[in-house]
Fold this sequence. Notes:
heterodimer; A: mainly beta; 4-stranded antiparallel sheet; 0% helix; B: mainly beta; 6-stranded mixed sheet; 10 strands
Amino acid sequence: DTGVSQDPRHKITKRGQNVTFRCDPISEHNRLYWYRQTLGQGPEFLTYFQNEAQLEKSRLLSDRFSAERPKGSFSTLEIQRTEQGDSAMYLCASSEATQGAGEKLFFGSGTQLSVL
Amino acid sequence: GESVGLHLPTLSVQEGDNSIINCAYSNSASDYFIWYKQESGKGPQFIIDIRSNMDKRQGQRVTVLLNKTVKHLSLQIAATQPGDSAVYFCAEKLNTGTASKLTFGTGTRLQVTL
């Protein structure tokens, strides 16, 4: 399977615990994105990387959230001191950086986080 | 699998009929638009895209129409099949010259009846 891979698929945690998710993008893609999706809504942009550099973060990304892409390949998203409002599907997407407007994002199946 | 959304607008179509899903986008500065399909428990799957310098683009069984005057996007699916049942999202990208920070619409659930 050469698509975007995310692990774990589901995570149940207690409020206050830390969680970490992993994303493996399509191998030749140099851009990697994290989005969050809550029930009944479309995905919302959180942050993105070009190679290992984190170039932009949304205001949705509080200081309890941190993302890394240390070698420009896989990425991790960590949430510290989880809150019930963090419950959502966390989606990773990757793409090849292109000139102009036509950059296609390919999404993984997501990690569904439930904070009890 | 877990439902993508419980209170989405729903379009019911009979198998074999054509489907038209509509989307109003928000920003006249957007220069690129994508339709995604999302099945329960899965991430969004790319269907078709269109740039703002076009008003129509066709793929296999799908056509996207763009009306920049009224900021409207539509997805037409020909000969709808049961496998087309899913939630469909339109997404827009602002012409900021940076990466694809897509803004997604609310989504429409397509139900295909036999």
